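Reviewers of the previous submission asked for a worked example of the structure-prediction workflow described in the proposal, so we include one complete record here. The input consisted solely of the amino acid sequence. No template or homolog information was supplied to the procedure at any stage.
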Amino acid sequence: MNQFLDVAIAAAREAGAVVLAEHSRPQKISYKGDVDLVTETDKRSEAIVVGRLRREFPDHRIVAEEGSSGATAASRYEWHVDPLDGTTNFAHGYPCFAVSIALLEDGVPLVGVVFNSIADELFSAARGQGAFLNQRPIHVSAAQRMAVSLVATGFPTHKRGDNLNIHYYWHFTLHSHGVRRDGSAALDLCSVACGRFEAFWEFGLKSWDTAAGILIVTEAGGKVTDLSGGPYHPGGPDLLVTNGHIHAEMQQMMAEIATRADNRL
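From that input alone, the workflow returned the following structure tokens.
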């Protein structure tokens, strides 16, 4: 397992160096949807990560945001790569973005790395071995109530008018220390893992957005489910991540909010 983690860290650092070098330069931007951006840096970062993974593990499958590659036959090992999580932030010069790399074994996260190169913060975890920030152990916060918690969320880039998350955002803004919307799910998850946030929830995230972060949170002592409390799998329709202490309270609030929102339709 250490070999997997070492390669993921090396790949994240190499790609992160490119992201850092290019973040202040004018960007050539294209669109995958009305507001879903992609830059040349996304593609360069992905090429670095995918290239290293192919060389080290030619039999593994790779699922990356800008394209999938690797073994054509079924493999128990599958890498999920977001070469630049927070592309919109990056394109606008807002310093909140990261490289996210995870290895799944039979669909379950085995290794996860998230590198925020602009802050030089590298989050990492391997199943059963704890979570780390720059090689120092991290843990979720000890907050026991929503009322004293700082939480985070995000909003989709597709069909934004159909998403009901604004109802959750409004409620939790009024019943917590605040809601942050920083635009990088991978970093939001890591912020839960190291105790900066007590919770994070979102809808419609892709596997490469969450696969590394949910392992890091779990290894830091947090709880990961879908909004109803069931198992969450990378790429699932909705996600709730907390320090564990406020999980049940958030689920109850969410059920009540969903009922009210449905009644308004």
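The chain has two domains: 2-137, 146-264. We consider this example representative of the routine output the project will generate in years two and three.
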